[in-house]
Amino acid sequence: MNRAIAVTGIGLITPAGIGVEENWERICEGRGLAAKDPELVGAAADISCRVPTFDAAEVVGAREVWRTDRFVQLALVAAKEAVADAGLDPGRWDGSRVGIVVGSAAGGVSTLETQHERFLSQGSKGVSALFHPMALVNMVSGRMAIEYGATGPNLVTATACASGATAIGVARDLLLSGACDVVLAGGTEAAVTPTFVTGFARMGALYSGTLPPEQASRPFDANRSGFVIGEGAGILVLERVTDAHARGPRLGPTAWLRCHLRRASCHLSSSHRPRNRGCDATRVPGRRGSAAGRTACERPRNFHSAQRCDRSKCHRPPRLTTSRCHIDKRSHGPYPRRRRCRRSRLHRAEPRSPDDPTDGKPRPTGFRGSA
Amino acid sequence: MAATYEQLVTVLTTRLGIAREETSPQSTFEDLEMDSLALVELIDILDAEFGTSLEEGSVNKNSTLAEVASVLEAHGENHR
Question: Nearest by CB to B44, which of A57, A61, A128?
């Protein structure tokens, strides 16, 4: 049995833009997107990568937008593009055969912070009845199911930075087991809030150097010193290869998913054990420096595992640094993100990485556009 | 009364995303397709805007906008 799964639709809303095309153009520009964030005044760090302004009411509807957390709004924007890209008509599919699996580590933390503030200032009467329908982490897959009449399996995966990658892996299993014919899978995160960001800053995970904000996000750089928090969502439409081919060449697969990781990245991101086995994920066949290894590389407190990843198991520096710079720190790991960026029909230009402040010259990305 | 009704419609349109053309004094909240959670939210907003303490259930899916406006109006007169 062919155990590969076809990616037939892609949708993105990230700091690099709204839509796959805009994202690719921005990635190829190789320009940093982090900036001072006025909403983080008072937090222990004040730079972030924000999604450009978008009209949430247009996608979610004016009646729903005020009762929908941003992490759900972002997922709905990405899902809309992905479903359209796949050429599927949700009005005509058998909803019971369509699954939704979305990764999110934080869920509706902005709603939680707002409601907690109201509880403290106004007492119990200040807390909205919509607190839980907005903030619970599973509401994103539920809301997508309503939107697309998808009554099949409906799940949210929470495995820290690997949440989106886990979702894609679970979606693959649902397809291979025959439980679903189509699965919308991906990740979403909108947790750039003062308290949430301060939590990362207090654990020493965020960039705190003196470079201009646009140069602060430098994953895998020799002189990296922490990440810059971002937000965004990416949703894929996944189908079995035979089904994708049966729908014709135009609507056929744009990429293949052959393996996935089953590892929560929190093991890597918060473990202080010097012999952290973070780079185990590099054992995935044919993958060097894969998702979990990269996650380990980005935090100063994981320097030991980062060193090991750089010097031994990875054999060579991890590839694809550029995408990580732009779409930094959303819930899904770089593995599916790289898949998205390597779609053959998008290979019109080689991405550049941001200028390296250590020597004033552009760094080679090692990214192979035609790989 | 007209001013209170207008203020109520403004709350519905600006805060809850209801289209103005859908509203009329005889519209019930069921007509406006507002669910129970939206009604709880509406009561919270009205309490904040009008200084009322509406009982939960005093505004239900069968209430018309005119009825709610008169409840708010009566509260305003009692506190003048």
Answer: A128
